[in-house]
Design a protein that fits this description.
mainly alpha; 89 residues; 65% helix; 4 helices
Length: 89
């Protein structure tokens, strides 16, 4: 959330921080350049990068976080660590 949200002001500081952040996966052997192109939506940072980061920041990551919290709550109840509160509790 922090990395994808950092680009959203679309200023010089955010631009260069995102440039550095998207170059880090580029150091992975064999697939690094592919990952960098996927993150950026091309060879360099552009409006496509901004849209990708915005959509992942607003839609993808919150959905994943809500899903993980839901699974976590289900497992807490299912495994008996806690139970669904009723009137007597």
């Amino acid at each position: 959330m922090g990395f994808t949200g950092y680009l959203l002001p679309w200023n010089q500081k955010a631009y260069w921080a995102t440039t550095v952040g998207t170059e880090i996966p580029g150091t992975i052997p064999l697939i690094g350049s592919f990952i960098t192109r996927v993150l950026r939506g091309g060879e360099d940072l552009s409006a496509v990068t901004l849209v990708r980061f915005f959509s992942s920041h607003i839609w993808v990551f919150p959905a994943v976080i809500a899903g993980v919290i839901g699974i976590h709550m289900y497992l807490i109840i299912r495994l008996g660590i806690s139970h669904i509160p009723d009137k007597d509790d």
